[in-house]
Write a structure and sequence with these properties.
The protein is mainly beta. The chain has one helix and 15 strands; from the N terminus they run ββββαβββββββββββ. β13 and β14 (172-181) form a beta hairpin. The longest helix is centred in the first third of the chain and has 4 residues, at 32-35.
């Protein structure tokens, strides 16, 4: 589901991203919605400064308000690349994917995975580095635990927040948090492990 952070005070809306899902009554979206104003990277200077901002779907339905916006991170070597949303009381949370995960299946190099798209064909990719380790995120000052998946097509940033599942079995393994399109038409991505979203 496409979402964005609405105008907040004098701060322009974020770009479109994806709703990751429902974690025990809290909606999870990628941290991009507080790091960007329109298409411009403009991160907040104090943690929690976007708390209370409204998050809506691309069709204008109010999802709720940001309740946790952890940027700048407390530990720059262990970034939590997601924002928590307190859902609007009118929402039926049963209609949102449950993303609670205490463990993920074993990941191996060359495992086939799928990027899940609502109302569209999933996009297939392969794990190219299955080790979950700290990797550079945003810039060289920050690190995030992640593994790497390569897709054989260009991906736009509006897919950040998408669920990634194993092709065999469909188990949730993580959230797409970063994309690097390559000159050969492929895209290398960072995937945040599903069991670390809490």
């Amino acid at each position: 589901m496409q979402i964005f952070r609405n105008t907040f005070g004098t701060i322009s809306p974020s770009p479109i991203r994806q709703l990751y899902g429902n974690s025990g009554g809290t909606l999870i979206v990628p941290i991009d919605i507080i790091l960007f104003r329109g298409g411009t990277f403009s991160p907040p200077t104090s943690s929690g400064s976007f708390n209370g901002a409204e998050v809506v779907t691309s069709s204008g339905t109010v999802l709720g308000n940001i309740s946790s916006s952890p940027w700048p991170p407390i530990d720059p070597t262990n970034v939590e690349p997601f924002v928590k949303i307190t859902p609007d009381l009118s929402l039926n949370l049963d209609s949102f994917a449950n993303i609670i995960s205490t463990a993920i299946p074993t990941l191996n190099q060359d495992d086939t995975v799928e990027l899940v798209r609502d109302g569209a064909t999933n996009i297939s990719g392969k794990i190219v580095d299955s080790s979950i380790q700290e990797r550079t995120y945003i810039d060289f000052s920050f690190r995030v635990n992640s593994f790497i998946v390569r897709f054989n097509r260009i991906l736009l940033r509006d897919l950040h927040g998408s669920k990634i599942v194993k092709s065999s079995g469909g188990q949730l393994i993580g959230m797409l948090i970063a994309t690097q399109n390559n000159s050969d038409g492929t895209c290398d991505t960072l995937i945040f492990p599903a069991n670390l979203v809490n």
